[in-house]
Amino acid sequence: MSEPDTEIQSAIMTPVLNLTSTLYQILMAMQMDPNMTSEILALPPEDQLHFIESLNLNSDVQSVDLEDQRMLIPEYRVNKAIGLYLPPFLLLMGTFGNVMTFLILRNKAMTRQSTNLFLAALAIADSTVLLVGLLRRWLGDILQMDIQSESDWLCKTVSVLGYSSSQFSVWLIIAVTIERYLVVSHPLHTSRYCNLTRAKRIISSLALLIVAINIHFLFTVSVHEHEHGLKECGSIAEFRLLVTVVWPWIDASLYALLPFLLIVVFNSLIIIQTLKATIWRAAQNGPLINTADKRKVFKDNNIKLTVMLLSVSITFLITTFPMAIVMVFHSAWSNDFENVPLSVMAQRQLLRTSAEMLMFLNHSVNFYLYCALGQKFRNQVLKTLCRSTVSANSNLSDHSQHLYCSRVKGYHVHNRTTCFDETNL
């Protein structure tokens, strides 16, 4: 019998008083995923006992090391590869993109439009999600520990920041979508509905409201240290119903269900209004005779910006929908650990990890969507790179700098790169 199996049998046979301690020893021998370990240890005592018994009864290959046995499961191998290699890629791509987005949108040429203010705030929220959520998850997989459980203040702070930043990001997308609907449906009142002052008030109000909703984590969760040394960030006893039963549904509604409904409704209205406006312009300008005429209609800056913002909200729908489904089934999965074999557990882990990676992808790709679909944003990026390159190569001749910067539709005057004023994306 292999060493891990011996440890499991020893843990089961040892007459210990603490059932949770016994279960912890078994899970450590199995090298169970830290997140799943915490979930299993949170089960009621009778479910913990059933889980231990099911492990003892369902061990089909006693002579094979349990880790080797799990490595024979394709889903388990894929899950480990995704958890190890994908997060650093998303972190680098997302952090670079969000920082660049913020710098570009806070440029003087881009700060005159309220939409850009929303998108700059979105870049900050997305960066926070990646640092608090994805980075912590990746380090936990590498170090086999959850940083959030290392101290009480980390437990509370990470909980508040994690939930607040993800919800704030989603509702900023909703705010941009509603603003775009107002621009498309009421173009004559754009200056009244969409201005910097109103945008600042909306952003501040959303931030304060969402933090107020999540501030309860400062007194509803804390670090619990078990006798076997395991630290776990979980709910305080008197708030267990709120944190484990009520709150998941509130979070699902704020992050997925209600945003899905609002984004689908307003995107549909935007598409309908845009098509109506396009048809009306075509009627005013006469029949569209050739492709060139069609292009003139669709080259309208307002339509371009609308298409780009639609891509942001549609990307949100596609990348977060799987996580919404997993959140619905997660509570049911947590209650039947003792009834499933290792292969099914590996499949569930893979589904959850894949859904989480898609969710984090949503917080990483906006910069690249702006560059792909926003010509003026793309020009501003090129102009920023132009200035940086010229500054780094100050020994270039005036003629060389002119040739370089002319490629990004700028012009050079007296050793200074000046670019066209682009206030829209």
From TrEMBL:
Q: Which domain of life is it from?
A: Eukaryota
Claim: Cell membrane is one of the keywords in the record: no
List the coiled-coil residues. Answer: none
Domain G-protein coupled receptors family 1 profile: start-end pairs: 97-370
* Keywords of the record: G-protein coupled receptor, Membrane, Receptor, Transducer, Transmembrane, Transmembrane helix
The answer to whether keyword Transport applies is no
What CDD domains does its record include? 7tmA_FMRFamide_R-like
Q: Where in the cell is it found?
A: Membrane
Q: Which residues cross the membrane?
A: 84-105, 117-140, 160-182, 202-221, 252-272, 305-333
Which family is this sequence assigned to? Belongs to the G-protein coupled receptor 1 family.
Write the protein's name: GHSR-like protein
Origin organism of this chain? Mya arenaria (Soft-shell clam)
